[in-house]
Amino acid sequence: MNDFEEIYHTYFRAVYLYVKSLAYNEQIAEEITSETFIKAMQSIDTFNGTCDIPVWLCQIAKNSYFSYLRKNNKMILVDELPEKIDTLNIERSMQEKETSMKIHQLIHALNEPYKEVFSLRIFSELSFKQIGALFQKSENWACVTYHRARKKSKRNGELKMKTNCSIIQDLLPLYKEEIVSPETKTLVEEHLQTCRSCQNELDEMTISEAIPMDINSYGLKKVKATLMKNKLTTVLFATMLAFICSIVIINVLTKPRPIPYSDTIVSITEQENGEILVHFSENVSGFQIDQSLVENKKGAIYSVTAWRTLGSQLLNKQATKTIVLNPNDEPVTSVYYVSENQINDVLLFGEKMIDNGGIVTLPRFFLTYYFLITATLSAILFLFILVTRKTKKIQTVIRYLFFAPLSYVLSTLCIKGVHFASLFAMRDLLLILLISVPIYVTCVLSFDYYRYFKQNRLSSSKQVI
Fold it and tell me: So where does this one cross the membrane (predicted)?
């Protein structure tokens, strides 16, 4: 930021004077200059150094000014300007303000590129080398064009005006560059001998002091605000991506992988006091025990599930675990072992509940229904986006709504892949909802950046070079 502030302070005067020479309006010049530095700040990484920084800034300012004219329907075609302006006997037919306007009209009436070269040299105080680079021409071309502009401005009329401070001060830039007629030069010099104020004005032009810049000026505040917004957006985008990656990695490392039944994995023993103990081997990372009451009987059926995780496999084996099913001497009717990888649940202890068959614990499928619902809603909103593409405001609102179900769809794919059935559906649902928030924010930021990039590219394609 400090480097860009230095660029802002160093070249603000040149850019401001250049835009003012095009717009003849201080307020417009200030707005365009601020916009120029904002655009320069946003595209500073693309600056390859093939031209000087002030030339690059003036190119941006010129394109921004022409974009402003198009946007406000104020484009002035050079071909529509008069070739010559009759300025004879101005002192007898014009008042001071009208005469001052004629001076600007003499410059404004020049054809391109004479007018712009003249303005760059006089008002923006660029060197011939910088002017040539701005037009992608040589330094000699800029010098020749400038002197031709001088001759054209002389031929357009000779100024004979009353000697007063306002008129003399309008002539001082031309006098300083020695592009006035001998009669006008004599007139200015005679006035300078008797007017200390105009002499001081000329001295300030000669010294070419930089315009003092307030660090809290409107333009710099606007540049700082835009830069801060871009930084915060970048930080937020990077944070969301990091959060998404973290959740995905945690899910991969901690995702339960059910273990098929084996007596080396889980076993049950009954103590003399009636306690039922479940023993898990060191290969088990975690387990789950569900209890359900038996109708018309005293007692309960217990379902035991054991699993391992990738994280535990990468680490050392776990210690063996022993769990008491009925610490309060509850009656135990049956104990079954449940796994996704087996046809029927395995009876570990107690009586068989079905004489001619087995019990099967099915995985939960509601994640599949949620996925289908959100995918369908995403498709419907996408069709609305296509239908309303001519109504930008409505389309933008629908896009933000579209990202909500789309985020859930993407979150489900990140957590579950394409297999949505699960014995641990609640765990998976919580992870899906957790990761869907940063995915939604990432989608919104990506869309906003794409829209901003597209608008800038479209604006650049329309700019007048």
Answer: 232-253, 367-388, 400-423, 429-450
